[in-house]
Amino acid sequence: MAEQKLGNPAVVGLAGFGLTTMVLQFHNVGWMGLGPVVWLGLIFGGLAQMIAGLQEMKTGNNFGYCAFTAYGCFWIALALLLIGNHYNLYPSSKTDVGWFLVAWTLFTAILWIGAMRVSSALALTFTLLLIGFILLDLAHFGYPDLTVVAGYELMATAAMAWYIMAHIIYVDLFGRDILPVGKPWIS
Amino acid sequence: MKLLRMLGWMGLLLACGAVRAAPAEAEVATAEEAITKVRAAARLLHDRGASSYADFNQRDSKWVWKDSYVFVYDCRKDRMIAHPMRPDLVGKPIMQITDNTGKPIFKDLCKAGNEARGGWVEYMWQKPGAGRLSRKVSYALAADVSFAAGIQVSAGVYDESIPIAELGKVLEKMSDPAKYPAL
Q1: Among B95, B141, B146, B152, the residue to mutate for chain A (most A Cβ within 10 A)
Q2: Residue A87: which of B51, B77, B150 has the nearest Cβ?
Q3: Does residue A5 fall inside a structural domain?
Q4: Please, how many CA atoms are within 13 Å of residue A55, restricted to the half-sphere of its CB?
Q5: A127 has a chain B CB within 8 A of its CB
Q6: Per-residue pLDDT for B13 more than 60?
Q7: Whole-model pTM?
Q8: Is the pLDDT of residue A73 over 60?
């Protein structure tokens, strides 16, 4: 009997990560408010990405297991932080949010090294993500104008995540690799 | 004796007059007060973010004093965020608001507020409790709020003659960290 084909949880993880990151940047560059960011952050970037991350465990992919679960939690925490700030529930100052982002920058730096062992596309995604986090850190510690720069930069990050998602889905549907992700930067 | 008593009565009357006149004098907000209130408001907005917006819509708060008040607006999204005297303006676009001389008040405030120390803008506005327009000079300052760029705080003084240059000197004096340590 043929083994049942399983889906790759990364397609959901990358979809949630990419879409929610994209929508937050639409806010950061001033195109829209925070409402959709909160709800997408809770459900798609948060819950769906976190479940995808937990499903990575069974595939034996520690990178995906850690990255998707952690960034899923990032979005849930960020959405709750926004809700808390709105309702005066453990409100976070701009400096507090800055330190929250610094911690995520350090965490991202660890995964950035790991991503270089996976593929060029993933290494580029994490390079852009790390630069985006650093720009947001600076935006919270004295250079508020960098929020907009980070906004456009992180849109490129989100697009890269979607590229990898499309790569996985299209390989499956077209039977050949039409969106190559390239060799690892560190072989 | 009679003269003395008369003088006493006159003195008492004068004192009453002075006491009566004193509150009228104290009702006028000063430039120093406007700067201090605006800086304190910017600090609160930094610390408490969006949850503090509602504080600035209350008339019976510390952000309304004498004949002045603090108001908060978003230069990037073109919205009034909080205004204790004009709830009708809250949530509405601000960039198209002009005074009776055609001056684009909030465009000028946003420009001044983006200066490193903030800045002063003069325009015509209704003084609280008065039925007519008065010359108002407002101090605008950008507030560093999480998840919101372009937020500014402002408060003004109603004065028909004080030159902007003089208010600039007050701001300079109050920006000296030796005399006015950071809040």
Answers
A1: B146
A2: B51
A3: no
A4: 15
A5: no
A6: no
A7: 0.84
A8: yes
